[in-house]
Amino acid sequence: MTVLRSADTMITTEAPSRLAGQPRKANVTTRRDLKPIPADGYYLTTSCVMGTFSPSIEPLIARLYDLLGRRWAMGGTGSASLNTCCSGIVTHGNVFTVESSLLVVARLWSVCAEAGLENITTACVTSFAIHNEILELIQKEPGLAEKVDRALYDACGRRLVVPRHIVHCSDVVYRYRGQLAQLMKYRLVDMTTGEPLKVVDHVGCHYNKIFPSKSVGGTEYCDVLTAMIREWGGDEVDYPERRHCCGMGFRQCMIRPNRSFTVACARKKFESMAPFTPDLIVTNCPGCGLVLDREQWAVNQLTGAKFQIPVLNYAELAGLLLGWDPYDVVGIQGHTVPVETLLERIGIPQSPQPAYLRDDAEIATAVNLRAAGSLVR
Asked: Which of 188, 194, 262 is nearest to 232 (CA)?
């Protein structure tokens, strides 16, 4: 039996405080500053790209959910994970059909419901777009929900259960950015000068361009990351190519003859932001983070430029400001552009011997000691 659920009443997102000494407000207010962001009950869907290239970020998101005291689950309730790729990368790459994506996403919705949750939170912006695209198809095409329900049952014995909300994990952090700020040990401020750091926000195209009304602030004035920057003490950098694609585009990065387009897009962005001398780039897309971090090396090699702008995912940034270990927890050693200089400016201490530099025997001993301590408690 198909179960369809109507959306909740619109939730008003928190406006930045205007009191002296408080975070600055956004420069532009649009009618789309309202978005339903659920307060609790999150099912976290994982990302194939993020899990491969930035494996620390999804555990960071889970850790943020725990810190906020939210009710959430990932992978189902059994010992084996029931999560899969959303199929977005192969659908947009013209390898997969949208009919196949319908079943893949419907199965994930069923796993969410089985875990007793109603809200999908995606770690990946492509997953965010695919889930919302499937939702729109089911809502607007007569009889499609029944067809998907029947095909899903025939394929794996599951039923279609439409989630109450589909949001990106950055939406959740956006909603609770003020609460997180109160828990942070550090701010986006240069500890020597006392000046706010200059931060570029880069929002994934699949978050704010495919369904602008489902993002925080729409396409041009998307505030999901800039609100975090302001709340956590930094200054947002506005530059001409702010909303230009990073260049990843699946058919560009997957097809070798098209790779030059990716490098050209990244170069365009770096050269456009360079006059503003940003201290940091913050992203909410696993692909954008990958391209903006690693293509700096390629652009430097090809053009003789010397770009060295650290690139962090919003969850990594939150983790660092909360005082979590830069290496063992946040995993900054996975970045191409070094992050250490940024940490020094903020005043975040670094481990003299992070785990990834230790011998295997040392790591095993430390893990065993922590495990033994948890058993004693």
From this structure: 188
**Residue with tokens 């302001």, as numbered in its chain:** 230
**Longest CA span, the chain:** 64
Q: Is residue 161 part of a domain?
A: yes
DSSP 196: B
Name the pTM for this structure.
0.84
User: Which CATH number is 336's domain given?
Assistant: 3.40.50.11810
Task: Give a yes or no: residue 1 inside a domain.
Answer: no
Instruction: Mark which of 134, 169, 204 sits at the end of a domain.
Output: 169
Report the 10 Å Cβ neighbour count for 50: 23
Q: Is residue 5 part of a domain?
A: no
Question: Residues 127, 108: contact at Cβ < 8 Å?
Answer: no
Q: What are phi and psi of 80, to 5 degrees?
A: -95, 140
**Overall number of domains in the chain:** 2
In a 10 Å sphere around its CB, with 0-12 CB exposed, 13-18 middle and 19+ buried, how is residue 305 labelled? Answer: middle
- Considering the domain architecture, whether residues 137 and 233 belong to the same structural domain is answered as no
Q: Are 280 and 309 in contact (CB under 8 A)?
A: yes
CATH number of the domain where residue 107 is located: 1.20.1050.140
8 A C-beta contact, residue 198 and residue 278: yes
The domain in which residue 128 lies consists of 42-169
Per-residue pLDDT of the chain (377 residues), as tens digits, is: 434 333 333 333 444 443 434 455 555 544 445 688 999 999 999 888 887 788 899 999 999 999 999 999 998 666 678 888 888 777 776 777 778 889 999 999 999 999 999 999 999 999 999 999 999 999 999 999 999 999 999 999 999 999 999 999 999 999 999 999 999 999 999 999 999 999 999 998 889 988 888 999 888 889 999 999 999 999 999 989 888 887 777 666 666 677 777 888 889 999 999 999 999 999 999 888 888 998 899 899 999 999 999 999 999 999 999 999 999 999 999 999 999 999 999 999 987 767 667 665 565 566 565 555 544 43
- Has residue 165 been placed in a domain? yes
159 lies in the same domain as 276:
no
The DSSP 8-state label assigned to residue 3 in this structure reads B
